[in-house]
Structure formats: C-alpha cells, structure tokens
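Entry 14. Ran structure prediction on the chain below.
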Amino acid sequence: MMPDVEKILIPSEEIQQKVRELGGRITEDYRDKNPLLVCILRGAVIVLGDLMRYIDLPCEIDFMDISSYGTGTSSSGVVRILKDLEENITGRHVLIVEDIIDTGLTLSYLKRSLLARNPASLEIFALLSKPSRRRVEIEVKYLGFEVPDEFVVGYGLDYAGAYRNLPDICVLKPEVFQGDGKR
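Output, structure tokens:
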C-alpha cells in the first residue's frame, strides 16, 4: 500500500465481483440493442475496460471529457465539455459510464445535454456514489458502491493525477490534500 493511503475502502476483489454482476445485468437489459458505452474521462477508463469484458453482447464505446472541478477537489458547479462524442447518438441506446457521483451537478448537466441529442435510451452506470454530498438527485440504474464522504483514490480515481493505478478503492490521508485549497 502506498504511504499516502490511509486505508483500503473497497478491495479489488469486491470491485471485480460487483463489475461482473453489473455487466451481467447490462447484458440482459441490452440484449439485441447494441449499446454505446460513453466513458467519462479520465476516471472511468479503468472501470470501462473491465465492465465491457463482462458485457456479453456487441457494444461500442465513445469518450467524453467533462470538467466541473477546475483545480480543486470540490465541484465548482460550472460544467465544461472538454472532449465531445465522436459518435452520433440519435436513436442509440446510450449508457454513461462514470467513476464517481459526488454532487450530481456534472452528471445532471451531461444527462440533459445527451438527452437533447435524442438517444433511444439513456442510462447511467457509476462505480461509486457519495450520497451525502448530493446537491442534485440523479437516477443511476447500475450502481457499484455507496461510499462515505472521504477522499477516495484508486481504480481510476485520482488526486492531482496520481493514484489511478491502485487496484483498490482507497482513502487518501487528509494531510496529502488539506491546506492546498482543495477539499
């Protein structure tokens, strides 16, 4: 374990078991629909790679990069699309793949934006949710885990670009991020 990590919150074995289970549900729900998985960069890349291997049907992927954090660790509430989809989603069955839902502001904006493009359906997969921080309610059809209001890293989630490579979901020691104007 890295010295900046306070504890392991969700071990990699539990993550894989949950992603496998949700991949099975998605397989059943999207049978004969050829879903488009929209990965929200950068944090969701790891879970997307694992999830699509557990979906037993043809599917496609695309990527969006969205920012609402600026340089801090708390959402600014101002959402910017940094990279938009390559694919036209009109008439497509779209599944947003997100790493973590915090306030819900970014995902709420994204959902409205994508619904305006007339997909056949639009659902959300999120590995993690922090309900205690929610400012906007979001319906998540495929949810991995609810986590407490602690700063989590690993399995794609980062702090200042680091820790994404940890195989577990870990809690970062507060002294690592306190005092720098970030959460």
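The chain has a mean pLDDT of 91. Will compare against last week's run tomorrow.
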